[in-house]
Structure formats: C-alpha cells, structure tokens
Structures
1.
Amino acid sequence: MLTLIAAVAENGAIGFQNKLLYWLPNDLKRFKALTTGHTIVMGRKTFESLPKGALPNRRNIVLTRNADFTAENTETFASLKQALAACSADEEVFIIGGASVYKEALPYADRLCLTLVHDTPAEADAFFPTLNADERKVEVEEKHDADERHAFDYTFIDYVRRV
C-alpha cells in the first residue's frame, strides 16, 4: 500500500522555505498514528527540515542524488523507483514530501491521507500536485473547527483510487 500524507492549504500549498505552513497538533497526532510502525519516504530537503532527524519507530527512506549523503537511522536511494523496489509487497509505505516526491508518487498511490487546511497562506513555494477527481474518491471526511490549539478550520480527508 502506497499512501501520500500531507497538510494542504486550499490553494494546494504545503510549504515555504522548507518549512511546514501550519502547526496543527491534531494533524501531527494523526500523522504519527498513521505512520508509526511503517515506512516513510521523503526527499532530502524534507528530511533536513525534520527538527530531530529520522522519525522514531519508522523505517526512514531518504531520496537523494548525492551518493555521499548519510544520516543516522535512514536508508538512502537515488530514486523513488529504487526506494519502492526495496520495500516488500506487504509493507505500508507513506510518502511524506516534498512537492516533487508527491508529484512523482501520485500516479502510484493507493491512498491519500490529507489534512485540508481551510486557509490560503500569504506565501508558499511548495505545492501538492493537483488531483484528478475521476481517479480518486473520498473514503473518509472529518471536519474540525478552529480552536485554542488550531488557528484554522481543517478537514481530514482520505482518498482512495477508484477501481
């Protein structure tokens, strides 16, 4: 199972200057709950944006063309194709960013676990690829209002591939 997971603004924005746009504790909890115990695949810049390096209790795969790149508790591959080939058929794999990795992986994704943030940021330089509504259907949709810990309304929305 290949899953893309991201927090996405209404205009598709996902980041600015190699940082997440939103701090939503419930989104972070959901991310941890879904990915713990599984494989996560990310580009090198996304890996470098993680405050403490490799995420614990997950197989961390970093995509980089730099053959000299190494990081503790990670595996590196030069391409998404090589990384996915190194995963077993029964392994649940989550693509966690960045924009170019999402774009490359989208055609192969079985599921998308998105947090749609009901906001359009003033600045963004990374965007989630546009979805084709004919290829996906909503499996789960859960709306949440802004509160003292969440500055924006948001919706957890999971898409699956249409058969």
2.
Amino acid sequence: MKIGLQLETTQKLALTPELRQGIEILQMTAVELNQTINKELLENPLLEFTNGFDERLPETSINWESVSREYDNRGY
C-alpha cells in the first residue's frame, strides 16, 4: 500500500449575470447599443436618461505650448 499526497491547481472563471451582460454590451454596435438603451428606458420606469455631460464642471483648456516647453526644459 502506497500513501502519498497529490497537489493539483485549477483555474475557473465564473461568468456572473453581470459579467455576461457586460460582455454582450461590449460586443454591440453603436446602433444596437442605442436601441438596447431605449428599450430598457421604456421597460423600466425607474431609469431616466440624462445628458452625459456635467454642466457644473469647468471647462479646462490646455496650453500645449507651455506643456511642451516645460517638458523640454526637464531634459527628458
């Protein structure tokens, strides 16, 4: 009779419903995504559509010339 230990490692990926939904969304074209969003908005009264831009955030403009000068002055 032989007694011994055996070690085995495995990897598993559990596809949760959220992960499945995320994968499906990432595979959609822009038209399909727009249609899916509109469908969900119609079916779920708790969802509401808002513009993706936050008007409260100040607009920042980057002076690329000064950034370039600063970058050059550091000796990179």
3.
Amino acid sequence: MKLYIKYMVSIRCKMMVKEALKTMGLHFIVVDLGVVEIMETLSEAQRLELKEILLKGGLELMDDKKAMLIEKIKNVVIETVHYADELIKVNFSDYLSEKLHYDYTYMANLFSEVQGTTIEQYIIAHKVERIKELIIYGELNITEIAHRMNYSSVAHLSSQFKKMTGLSPSHFKQLKDKRRSPIEEL
C-alpha cells in the first residue's frame, strides 16, 4: 500500500517515518521523500494513529489526489536540486512530465493554483538555497557552483541569486548572519 506524506523533505523526516511505522508494527518496502510503501493495508484506526504520530513530527498523511500530486512535484524538485548527483539533460518540464506521468501544463496550472507560485519560481527558490549551502561549504567556487546547478553562466546564477536574496553570491559569502532557510519553509 502506498502512502503519501506532506512535508517529508529530508533524511531526518524519512528516519522519523520509519520509526513511526516500526512502532506501529508496520513493515515498509520503501520510505522515500513524500512516499511510503508498506506491506500491509491500513485499517481506518491505523490510518488515524499514523496520522496523529506524523502530525506530532510536523508531517501530514495525505488523502486528496491533487494534494498528493503537488507533493510529488515538490519532492521531484527537492530531489533534483538538493540530492541528485547528476544534472538532468532534458528540459525540467519534460523531466517532470515523464517522471510523474502527467501533462506539464496540467501540473503547472494546478501547482500555481494551489501554491500561489509557479513551478519555475519554486525551483529557483530551491536552487538559491542550494547555492547558499554550496557557498557556505566553501568547497566550490562560483563558476563550479554555476556548472553544478545547471546554469548557462555565472552571470545568470548571480542575477537569479541577487533577485531572490538582494545580495550577490560574493557578498553573501562575506556575511555571517544571513543564512539559509530550511527546505520545509520554502
């Protein structure tokens, strides 16, 4: 049985969900960002119990199909921007359509309607947070970060970064108090 969980965006979230399932005596096949597959079929009482446990940890068990699709879109963006080892070689809209098996226009319209922002703006917000993270780590220079984040140039990265933060990447690097936002708050 597949379950969809809202706000499940980090390794800590995955660990918390695994622990909740173990506590309830449920056996999981897969625990991934936003999606859990368990061997059992949940009774209504078990579903309510799991819902309560997850809510205590800031997560939400979802029932609505549109809400589930929105979460899937968010999880693909988070997975691609924050955790992917390789850059995707195709247009992101094509990648998203192929991965989720929905028409991109439908997903984009639904996402905008529900979230009040476009998928593109959501991606940019996550890319900027990832860029902040990479700048803070100090392992890569701006040119390497631009390449890693799939920007056409350093100028393009700098322009988007400044538009979102009000700072150039080099100025951000110099600041000590202006730090990253948690993924969950984007």
